[in-house]
Amino acid sequence: MGVSKTTQKDLMRAAGFATPKTARISREEWLAADYKGDIIYKLIHQIGLPFVVKAPNQGSSIGVSVVTENDLQKIVAAINRSFFIQEITAAEWKSYSEAQKTRFINSLTDIREGIGLPVTIQALPFPERGANKNPSPSKVGMATGWDGNSTFEGWAAFHPEDLYYTLENLEAIASQENAKAILANINGEEEVLIEGFLPGKEFSCIVIQDENGEPIALPPTQIIKSNNVFDYRSKYLPGMTRKVTPIDVPDEHLATIRRECCRLFKALHFNVYARIDGFVNSLGEVFLNDPNTTSGMLPSSFFFHQAAEIGMNPSQFLTYIIRTSLVERTKSAKNSIFLKAKTSALDEAILQLQTSETHKTRVAVIMGGFSSERHISVESGRNIYEKLASSGKYEPLPVFLTGSEGRHELYVMPINIM
After folding, report:
1. Is 243 buried (19+), middle (13-18) or exposed (0-12) by CB count in 10 A?
2. CA 164, 166, 171, 174 torsion: positive or negative?
3. C-beta separation of 272 from 321 below 8 A
4. What is the pLDDT of residues 172-200, one digit of tens each?
5. If we measure between CA atoms, which residue out of 23, 58, 47 comes closest to residue 197?
6. Does residue 184 sit in helix, strand or coil?
């Protein structure tokens, strides 16, 4: 994937691609500000509402939030999340029941919705040197070699129990009831990216390289979300989003999307394949976003959705990507003899597979139904279909079950719907 979303934006802007308004906040600037409202006022004045807050070096939409209203507390929380920082006061922690404390720890340490582990711990205000109320070093992560007399700043918790014990002793650590803990992931961001919100239909497009090195954009997939952000859970949990391939737009807008994706592929000197996301509005204006030099390859990923649209099953598409990659690496003149031999061996294996006559057993994969969980059945059925389609033994036939209780109907699904 692209290493830095901020660098991507600079490169795309320099290459003449339309981009939203952007701003950046450094970690040093954010933590040094006693009152965050001044920074947020400048952001709203510069970018406008709504805007998107991004952790620029993360994948799978981790650390991404959409801010829709001028609410200081919510905006601070969104920016903290992108920095992988979370604050909690001793009074807040003390007010929680044991079940609430457990939920807080579980949420905070889950990178999909919190800041993950390990975290550094900064307790404010700091205790005086030599205070006797510090917790036992055996109960807390030893990132800095605590001697029992130093302040608590810079310590790290590597396990949820360490974090729990620290928060239980927060008042003692800081020697005051108004103590506050600033928890920050050790691998957190040094900078946060703020972007203007892009209205329109969201899409993702796989671009592959042909035998002459030219990019080909596959039919882009429209992402229909249940909330504002195509976040980690929306991407990987069944039923959180719908994917429509190709995107439901006029043909001329579809052509523009594919053309712009190919242009970006060449402008950023990508090769073999890439996944390029973006938005298209009602006027057909295309805004590309966060190009990735690799793509998720779960059975329900865009990668296989769009391959199926051009009639390739997962095994065929992966074989094509592997062969294209071997040919591209040969151009680097490193290990070229070895790579050419591997390419020849792969070509021979493909030819043998094409010429051999194999009888495959036809298997019906039934999915769908009329219950509220039919979307999960479709996702599971797709996974089974794609696994069987990649085998040399079975020829799966996707069948969709619909109707109502007592009255069932079966429909054979075309391959492009899969």
Report:
1. middle
2. negative
3. yes
4. 666 566 678 889 999 999 999 999 999 89
5. 47
6. strand
What's the CA gap between 230 and 227, in Å, rounded?
A: 7
Of 225, 219, 296, 275, which is closest to residue 251 (Cα–Cα)?
219
Rounded distance between C-alpha atoms, residue 261 and residue 288, angstroms: 8
Helix, strand, coil % (nearest 5) of the chain?
Answer: 40, 25, 40
The answer to whether the peptide bond before residue 50 is cis (omega within 30 degrees of 0) is yes
Alpha carbon 211 to chain centroid, angstroms? 30
CA of residue 11 relative to chain centroid, distance: 21
Report field, pTM of the whole predicted structure over 0.85: no
What's at 20, amino acid-wise?
P
Express each pLDDT in 354-388 by its tens digit: 777 678 889 998 888 777 677 778 777 877 887 78
Q: Are 75 and 67 in contact (CB under 8 A)?
A: yes
Residue 241 has phi, psi (to 5 degrees) of -145, 165
Closest CA to 367 of 299, 298, 310: 299
Is residue 108 classed as helix, strand or coil in its secondary structure? Answer: helix
